From TrEMBL:
Record-annotated membrane-spanning stretches: none
Keyword rRNA processing: no
SMART domains (UniProt xref): Flavokinase
GO BP annotations, alphabetical order: FMN biosynthetic process; riboflavin biosynthetic process
Gene3D superfamilies reported for this sequence: Riboflavin kinase-like (2.40.30.30)
Species name: Wolfiporia cocos (strain MD-104)
UniProt protein name: Riboflavin kinase
Length: 200
């Protein structure tokens, strides 16, 4: 049986990851997972968005929200490293003040990386969520709730930044198409999310 991300983190430093190949890229499916989420999904995560490494938006053109290390245990204890898909929502308030626009607080599709990001050689296990939406401002310090619904692909290493960006764009397309199925769409209205924004 494959070790969970948490098990790997306990007894190893940064683990090796397979190198992404052109064959892998050509053979990637448009939709992943069964037509109905299967255990261990859905997995619910929540935490305050942290400052990460600052490279998602600047280096990759794909801003990510980093969850606190202790908030990813419900996922890392039952899944392996890799890229996942689901839904997430950011709260509009920070420090008691409403900051974000209504449209930035809807439940939206997301792609999530759980692992060590081999291309950047991270030293610890992290969870980075990319919400597939153009935000009007950053959301550091805001509460984020996420429901992870399926697995897209394993964590990979890359020889170039361009190859990594190419796979990230594919991950986003796969996430959106995989979430288009009715059994996944219903999670947009899960009570885990704030209902006043979930249907805007």
């Amino acid at each position: 049986m494959t070790e969970t991300a948490a098990q790997v983190a306990v007894h190893q430093d940064r683990p090796a990851a397979p190198l992404r190949t052109e064959t892998f890229r050509r053979d990637r499916p448009d939709i992943v997972g069964p037509d109905v989420p299967e255990p261990p999904f859905p997995i619910k995560l929540a935490g305050v968005v942290q400052h990460g490494f600052g490279r998602g938006g600047k280096d990759l053109g794909c801003p990510t929200a980093n969850l606190p290390d202790d908030s990813i245990t419900p996922m890392s204890s039952v899944t392996r490293t890799g890229v996942y898909f689901g839904y997430a929502q950011i709260s509009p308030e920070k420090d008691g003040k409403r900051i974000l626009r209504d449209e930035d607080c809807t439940v939206m599709p997301m792609a999530m990386s759980l692992g060590w990001n081999p291309f950047y050689k991270n030293e610890r296990l992290t969870a980075e969520i990319h919400l597939i939406h153009d935000f009007g401002s950053d959301f550091y310090g805001h509460q984020m709730n996420a429901i992870v619904l399926g697995y897209i692909r394993p964590e990979l290493d890359y020889t170039t930044r361009e190859a990594l960006i190419d796979d990230i764009e594919t991950d986003k397309r796969v996430a959106i198409k995989s979430l288009s199925r009715p059994a996944y769409q219903k999670y947009m209205h899960d009570t885990f999310f704030a209902t006043e924004y979930s249907r805007l």
